[in-house]
Amino acid sequence: MKGCDTGKHEFERKRNRPERYDRNFAEEPLKAIKKIDKVIAIRESRHIAWRMRGKKAKGLEEDLKEDRSLTLPKIKVKVVPSQGEHNQPMEE
Length: 92
What we know:
mainly alpha, 4 helices, Ribosome biogenesis protein RLP24
């Protein structure tokens, strides 16, 4: 992130010219640095959200491709009882 930090370093850079101390002049860069940090954090979070969009849907598609037996319906099998078993008395 070289390009994003250049503005912050402009405020922090020590210049070789003598200047008279002014409290307002010293406070402005410090306030600006805080604002710049907030903007950088917002941009980073937006970038992460942009990169992660659609990841959940892709993950579901991959899971379905891996193991179809988990989502496919069971095959209904009709069981026909044989007549020989039906007429026999129960054993003790």
